[in-house]
Structures are given as C-alpha cells and as structure tokens.
Amino acid sequence: MYCRNLCLATLLSGAFIATPAAAAIYEFHFTGQYTLLDPIGGFMDQKPISSTLTYNDQSGSGFSAGMTIEDFETVGATATIHDISLQRHEDSNYIIGNMLADWNNNYGVPVSMVWDASGLFNAIALGLQEGDVISGTYLKRGGSTIANVGSAIPASDGTLDYNGIPLDQGPAPLAVTTLNTSLTCTPGTDCMGNALSGTAPFTDDGIAGSPLIDGPFVGLNVNFDIGSGNSLTVQSISSVPLPGTAWLFATGLLGLITAAKRRKTA
Asked: Which residue range(s) make up the domain with 110?
C-alpha cells in the first residue's frame, strides 16, 4: 500500500509539476480567395480576401480559433462577415466553420463550411516559428522552403469561370471541401442570426461549400479558402498557462494521498 501511494504521488507530481503547463496561441495573417457558386456548382463570383486567424491548442485535440475577414464586394453590394467560429471535428483534419454575413440590408445570414486543414495542422506539428509562412502547400522560413505540409486542393478548383477558364488557386492550408454541415436550426424560423448553424455529421453533394440555408441566396455555396495560392503568415506565438483548477486538483489529490499514507502508518 505504501509503495502504491508513493508511486501514485510521484507519478502525479511528475504529470502536474515537472511538465510545463502551457498551451500555444498562434496568430496568423492570411490571404486567400472567396468563391461563390450557384446551387449546381456553377461559377458566380471570386474575390481575394485577407485578414487574421488565431489558433489556440490549449484544448489538446480540440480546435478553438478566432478569425476575421475584411469586407469585400460581391453580387453588387458589400459583404461583412462576423461572429466567425471554428472547431476541429474530433481528431480529424476537418474544421467546421460557422459565421454570419451582412449583405445589402440583409443581416445575420448564416454561413457554414467544412475545411480540410491538413496543411495547417501538419505545419503546426512540425513546429512553427514567428515569421514562418505557409504558402499553398509549402512551409517557408527565412525565404527557404523547409517542408511540404500536404495542403489540400480547394474543392472549387476546376470550376469554369465566366470566360471558360478553370479556377486554379492551388493547395490551401485551409481548403473548403464538398462536405455539407448538418443544421442546428430551422430555416425560416430561427436560422437568421444563428452564428452556429452548422455541425457534424456531414453529407457530401459534390459541390464546393455548404449551401446557404436562409436569407436572400438560399442554395448558393460560399467558399473561403485560406492561404490558397498566397500565404498564411505566423505573426506571433505565445504561451498560456493551463487553468488553475488543474493545479488545485493536483495539489488536493496529492494531499489526500499523503494523509491516507500517514493514517496507514500511524
């Protein structure tokens, strides 16, 4: 009994005290492409986009992030994207993106999509540094390519534009897929203004992006390919301590083990 308690105490001490309790927060600046497709996958619009992405790995296999996208013109009016949230789907390389769009006096149009983030996750696993650039499928440092991170091809690539020329963004660290999210709301009832309208499980209709479910453009498919043919640049990397509750739990548990050992030997 003494050995079991002592060994357990030692193990917990190593797990909670010797191991650094920190998570990494990565801040990126990105460029990419917005692509709009009609309900059968035909080309409607494409514009360059740029802004920021924040990745927090504190939740381990989970993914929590914040992203902003600068306003852009589409279909005759300015689009503003806000309330963006991203969540890694289980332990896969998929990320579910949910957001709201304001366009031409239509406010809170729900938008969701599923990214293949193989390039992003592979680059993080290799160990990123400030100033690193994920350009398409290549991780670059100091102007030199150091690895191919296996970025996916955006599902909209190959779609013919108005001139009959295939779209060709090339690999992207976050590439929109043909997967559609499942609804968490009822169109026409409570979807407008719902910033978390899409979730797993997924279906696949073979068309890039998830179709819009409410608002003026029901059925159209929105794609935001991040880093496609351009770049995802690491602006900063910082560490964050694990929540204090974990340390309090460890301290309390070690105290209970010590007390039990003393009672046993008394």
From this structure: 23-243
